[in-house]
Every structure is written in structure tokens, then in C-alpha cells.
């Protein structure tokens, strides 16, 4: 069995209310094992037979729609992928851990698409941006709540849905995955 983390987007936002107990129960019915929610709602550790994470994303997104009638992008990463999402974030060492985020994406938008989005956003705010492997690194500098760099803007410009977590939370999750 391989240990994974699933980051559920759009859970407990607006009308998409879901208890973590219900989510754990639904995952157990799908034969995921050693299920544990961590840090905040929408972060679930689990064990499953080793397979590509994008296949697990599709499986969990379908489960959310089928069991809870919630359209949710789900990003699934292995321990190594999560570690890379933290270590490769160029803002992690210098930014505020609560404001530096990794946004996990459904795919790789490519350097040209990323550059076009970054150029359009540049006059809109002070955020620092960098592209990673199936992720976007963001330093919100002045805070997420005050930023004009929204998930909708990013998803529309990059062509992929995503869900973000701050570096502080990601470090806690990685620690739990490794121990």
C-alpha cells in the first residue's frame, strides 16, 4: 500500500457542506485504507494500491459527485510529490508561511500559458508567482483575503482547476505522512 494525500477543493464552501466523518466513511466504502483527515477540512490521508495520482483524482472526484452531489476538484499527491511541492516552492524560505501557497493543479499548463497569466496579473497585485510540476507557487505577500489573484482567475487563465494550501499546512501534512 502507498500513502497519499487528497486535497479536496470546494468542500465546506458555500452550499458544499460535508463533515469529515462522512468523507472518511465514503472513502472507506471505496476501499481506501488508513483514512485520516488532517489540518483542516478537505485534507485526507489514505493508503491505496500504488497507482498514478491522476487516476485517484478522477476516482475521488466521481465519488464526491456520486455520493454527495458536490462537484469537487481533488488533487492527490504521494509523499514524494508533496515533499517536492514544498521544497521546490521558491517562496517557502523567504515568505510568510501563512501567505505562501502551493496550488495543486489538474495538469501542467506549460511555461507559455503560465507567463501569459503572470503578465496579465502583474499590474493587479504584488503576488509572486512561479510554475511547478502540476502546481503553481504563490506568495500572497499582503494576504489571500486582500488579493485579486483568485482561484477563478488562475483556473481560467491556466486552463486547469486547482486547490491551494499554505506552506505551514503542507509541512504539517508531510510530517504526518512521514511518521
TrEMBL record:
Source taxonomy: Bacteria, Pseudomonadati, Pseudomonadota, Alphaproteobacteria, Sphingomonadales
Protein name (record): DUF1697 domain-containing protein
Superkingdom to which the source organism belongs: Bacteria
Pfam families given in the database record: DUF1697
PANTHER family: BLL4334 PROTEIN (PTHR36439), DUF1697 DOMAIN-CONTAINING PROTEIN (PTHR36439:SF1)
Amino acid at each position: 500500500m502507498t500513502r497519499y494525500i487528497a486535497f479536496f477543493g470546494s468542500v465546506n464552501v458555500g452550499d458544499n457542506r460535508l463533515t469529515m466523518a462522512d468523507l472518511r466513511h465514503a472513502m472507506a466504502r471505496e476501499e481506501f485504507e488508513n483514512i485520516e483527515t488532517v489540518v483542516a477540512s478537505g485534507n485526507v490521508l489514505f493508503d491505496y494500491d500504488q497507482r498514478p495520482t491522476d487516476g485517484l483524482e478522477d476516482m475521488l472526484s466521481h465519488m464526491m459527485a456520486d455520493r454527495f452531489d458536490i462537484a469537487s476538484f481533488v488533487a492527490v499527491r504521494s509523499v514524494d510529490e508533496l515533499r517536492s511541492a514544498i521544497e521546490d516552492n521558491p517562496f517557502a524560505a523567504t515568505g510568510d508561511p501563512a501567505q505562501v501557497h502551493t496550488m495543486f493543479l489538474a495538469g501542467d499548463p506549460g511555461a507559455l500559458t503560465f507567463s501569459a497569466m503572470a503578465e496579465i496579473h502583474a499590474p493587479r497585485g504584488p503576488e509572486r508567482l512561479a510554475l511547478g510540476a502540476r502546481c503553481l507557487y504563490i506568495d500572497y505577500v499582503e494576504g489571500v483575503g486582500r488579493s485579486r489573484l483568485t482561484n477563478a482567475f488562475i483556473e481560467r487563465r491556466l486552463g486547469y482547476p486547482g486547490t491551494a494550501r499554505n506552506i505551514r499546512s503542507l509541512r504539517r501534512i508531510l510530517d504526518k505522512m512521514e511518521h
